[in-house]
Design a protein that fits this description.
Order of helices and strands: HEEEHEEHEHEHHHHHHEHEHHE
CATH topology: Rossmann fold
Mean pLDDT: 93
Number of domains: 1
CATH architecture: 3-Layer(aba) Sandwich
Helix content: 40-55%
Radius of gyration: 21 Å
Number of strands: 10
CATH superfamily: Alpha/Beta hydrolase fold, catalytic domain
Largest sheet: 10 strands, mixed
Strand content: 15-25%
Number of helices: 13
């Protein structure tokens, strides 16, 4: 029996050694990622978060010019939305792009579970915009950020000019969260995975993930490096992002009950080839509920339309600044074969 005890000790020590090596390698990769991330912007304190944001202004700024607040999606950061829309909107006003609470360089002062509702994130962003001295912003959200933009319109309709919602999930769905998002949110085990496996595994999946999300369109070369996409693989970021993703469907089930009461000017943009968020099940459905909304339905366009359809987005943002919403469904482009 002594030999069984010795084998158990040896096996345990071997597993601990393997785990320590995995942890050390992931830590090494994370240091390399941090060294290559884009330069930080500015920070602002709110009651439940420290928010990181980027700011860009027109050269001839005035109080009369619009303020555009950009809200990024899941597995992204403020660098993503600023790189896609910032330069196009900056000549016409002030552009603010926030890392959503708990993501990117933003930090939470509460648990991720307490901030998982899009409305809670909208509240925190709203406080930041007010503290910065801006009024009546145009809220522009992509994907998960579009869910936050919708919640912003629900909770703060009197304080915004309008909302532009891009490729956003707006209604609950039946499928389960992805296996990796479930895995990293398991108590203790999730943290171990996030610190020892996620970085090395994730680095090998980033480019394929971008291509699949953008399909059938393509994102510019160097996208991942420019927006610091690998920052998602930091353990805190990855776990918080997973918690938000896992809980979104349930929160949308709550939000949809009050959609009919939204009076804020809304413009929705979605693509017929979006394989991440089904446009007809979300944007079309909301338009059926709120006939006064404008829905721009783009043929041959995928989920990353905030990078590929800038002209449509800028035109919609300009019209929202003037509260010009063309109610109805407006289709552009032609259906593309695979």
């Amino acid at each position: 029996m002594i030999w069984l005890g010795q084998m158990l000790i040896i096996s345990t020590l071997s597993l601990l050694l393997i785990f320590a090596l995995l942890w050390a390698h992931d830590s090494y990769l994370r240091r390399k990622i941090k060294a290559r991330l884009p330069a930080a912007g500015q920070f602002i304190e709110t009651p439940r978060a420290t928010l990181h944001y980027l700011k860009s202004e027109a050269e001839t700024g005035s109080d009369a010019q619009p303020v555009f607040v950009l809200i990024h999606g899941s597995s992204a950061s403020c660098y993503d939305v600023m790189s896609s829309m910032g330069a196009a909107l900056q000549p016409f006003g002030t552009v603010l792009a926030f890392d959503r609470p708990g993501l990117g360089l933003s930090r939470l002062k509460v648990s991720a579970e307490a901030m998982a509702h899009p409305g809670e994130q909208a509240d925190e962003l709203h406080l930041a915009v007010r503290q910065l001295g801006y009024k009546n912003p145009i809220i522009i959200g992509h994907s998960w950020g579009g869910s936050v933009a919708m919640a912003y319109a629900q909770r703060h309709s009197d304080d915004i000019t309008g909302a532009l919602i891009l490729a956003a999930p707006l209604y609950p769905w039946d499928s389960k969260p992805t296996w990796y998002n479930r895995a990293v949110t398991v108590p203790l085990i999730g943290r171990l995975l996030a610190h020892s496996v996620v970085t090395k595994y994730g680095l090998g999946q980033l480019q394929a993930g971008v291509a699949a999300t953008a399909y059938p369109e393509r994102i510019f070369d160097g996208y991942s490096e420019k927006v610091g996409l690998a920052g998602l693989l930091m353990p805190r970021n990855f776990i918080t992002n997973a918690i938000y993703a896992n809980q979104l469907s349930g929160h949308l089930a709550e939000m949809q009950a009050a959609y009919e009461s939204v009076s804020t000017p809304l413009i929705l943009i979605g693509g017929d080839r979006d394989q991440t968020v089904h446009t007809k099940r979300n944007s079309h459905r909301l338009h059926d509920t709120l006939k006064q909304t404008e829905l721009i339905y783009l043929r041959g366009v995928g989920h990353m339309l905030h990078h590929t359809q800038i002209d449509k987005i800028v035109d919609a943002a300009h019209r929202l600044a003037k509260r010009q919403v063309h109610a109805g469904i407006h289709e552009f482009g032609q259906r593309q074969a695979d």
